[in-house]
Design brief:
binds nicotinamide-adenine-dinucleotide, Rossmann fold, alpha/beta
């Protein structure tokens, strides 16, 4: 592929990280299909509206766009201030339906990069709980699973844990059957319109603490190059990985006492 034009679907292209991702590839000369629930003017070759809560709309999109794609950059998501069923349906199920639907539409050598979050960093401790959610492949099943869960555990975290675990479990079959890689990028707090909702759902104190630990919040320009790399042929031997793009915040918590320098 090299510097040839690539064909890229960006879901969540209407705002924030998704808009920056679509604009980045478009500016580079790639053919970008920008998908979002909202009408938008993000620079792209084609635009489609699609509500990830509507599985029939997702199916119609997948049916219409044809094959021959190089990359699905699945960025769309909603914060924990949205209704819990929407958080799981959009963030987890929507990503899953788009990813599985795109596998046969991507060239061998193609890739999926989904945006998760450092809020999903606890996924490895929650695999037993998430088992039931990963068994849910439609809206009704996701909602039934949700009804059995502890409402005090943040549903946004659950949705992103599920995205990361799903991508890891899909990586081997996607590679062996389709020659497609799948990775996730987990940003820490990033300056986009969603941040105000995170201040509400996670607490201003928590976000201020993250910012003071690593010096600043991310900008979209910190995140897009990682999506670009993971989606590029240069990352051809990388699959099933979750990359923290958080200025080192999670590592600083998990690794214990910092080395004295
Ligand atoms: N900004 C942050 O601090 C941060 C941190 C970690 C992870 N994330 C994740 O990054 C991704 C992008 O978020 P952002 O910061 O750019 O926020 P944003 O609100 O600017 O963008 C989210 C986009 O998703 C779209 N979307 C929402 N519901 C949809 C639906 N039902 N169907 C289709 N599209 C829908 C929105 O219209 C919007 O364009 C999300 O998955 C978010 O969870 C963001």
């Amino acid at each position: 592929m090299g510097s040839e034009q690539r064909r890229i679907v960006v879901v969540g292209a209407g705002s924030g990280i998704g808009a920056a991702t679509a604009a980045h590839f478009h500016t580079r000369g790639d053919h970008v299909l920008a998908v979002d629930v909202r009408e938008n003017e993000t620079p792209a070759a084609e635009h489609r509206t699609c509500d990830l809560r509507d599985t029939a709309a997702v199916d119609a999109l997948l049916h219409d766009i044809g094959s021959g794609w190089d990359l699905l950059a699945h960025v769309a998501g909603v914060p924990g201030t949205a209704p819990p069923a929407d958080v799981l349906t959009i963030n987890y199920l929507g990503m899953r339906l788009m990813t599985e639907g795109m596998l046969p539409l991507l060239h061998p050598g193609g890739a999926v990069v989904a945006v998760a979050s450092t809020a999903g960093a606890g996924w490895a401790h929650r695999t037993e709980v998430l088992e039931g959610l990963l068994g849910a492949t439609d809206t009704a099943a996701v909602e039934s699973w949700l009804a059995t869960q502890d409402p005090s555990y943040p549903v946004y975290n659950t949705s992103k844990e599920a995205v990361i675990l799903y991508a890891k479990r899909l990586a081997a079959p996607a590679w062996t059957k389709y020659g497609v890689r799948i990775n996730t990028v987990s940003p820490g707090p990033t300056e986009t319109p969603i941040l105000a909702d995170f201040e509400q759902s996670m607490g201003v104190d928590v976000l201020d603490m993250v910012r003071s630990t690593v010096g600043r919040h991310a900008t979209v320009d910190d995140i897009v190059p990682i999506i670009d790399f993971l989606g590029s042929p240069a990352a051809r031997w990388v699959t099933g990985q979750d990359v923290w793009a958080d200025g080192g915040f999670v590592s600083s918590i998990l690794a214990g006492t910092p080395i004295d320098i």
